[in-house]
Write a structure and sequence with these properties.
With 146 residues, this protein is α/β, with parallel strands linked by helices. It has helices at residues 7-14, 20-29, 37-52, 58-72, 82-88, 99-112, 125-133; strands at residues 2-5, 32-36, 76-78, 118-121, 137-139. The protein contains seven helices and five strands; from the N terminus they run βααβααβααβαβ. It has a five-stranded parallel β-sheet, with helices on both faces. Helix 1 crosses helix 2 (20-29). The two termini are 17 Å apart. 38% of the residues are buried. The model has no long low-confidence stretch (mean pLDDT 96).
Length: 146
């Protein structure tokens, strides 16, 4: 399986959410994991924010950022280049689509053009709906039973 890792799926793993174990399994089992710069930045920012607001200790947040850094070292991280920006500026099925979601969707479409059988790891309902309308297979298949 080839996987585009959107932030919500990665964060579920990093934050030990209910669906996090399944997200981690999918990331580990994937032959190829592709993520956007945006995925890494969003995950880092959530961990920094959680520490700043007291939801995580600084040490715990640093440990989780280290897990992210180690995992991302094995991923293909897409830069948000002109092709992705141009696509994100266009309409998507199910508008309105938020800006960061549009960048994720555009990144996944760009990655799909280069990697056969690419599936999208996401737990965000809005992204999942738009991705499905764009013909992307979703992981996990059923988020209620993730």
């Amino acid at each position: 399986m080839n996987l585009y890792a959107e932030s919500s799926g990665v964060l579920a793993w990093l934050l030990d959410e209910e669906a996090g174990a399944r997200a981690r399994q999918l990331l580990t089992a994937a032959d190829i994991v592709i993520a956007s710069d945006l995925t890494v930045v969003e995950c880092d920012r959530v961990l920094i924010r959680a520490a700043a607001l007291g939801g995580l200790t600084e040490a715990d947040a640093a440990g989780r950022r280290a897990h992210l850094t180690r995992a991302a070292a094995h991923w293909h991280v897409l830069r948000i280049g002109p092709e992705i920006v141009d696509r994100a500026r266009q309409p998507f099925p199910g508008e309105p689509i938020r800006t960061l979601d549009a960048l994720h969707l555009a990144s996944a479409l760009f990655a799909r053009s280069a990697v056969a059988g690419l599936e999208m790891l996401s737990l965000d309902d809005r992204i999942r709906q738009a991705a499905e309308r764009l013909g992307l297979r979703l992981q996990p298949r059923n988020i209620s039973g993730a």
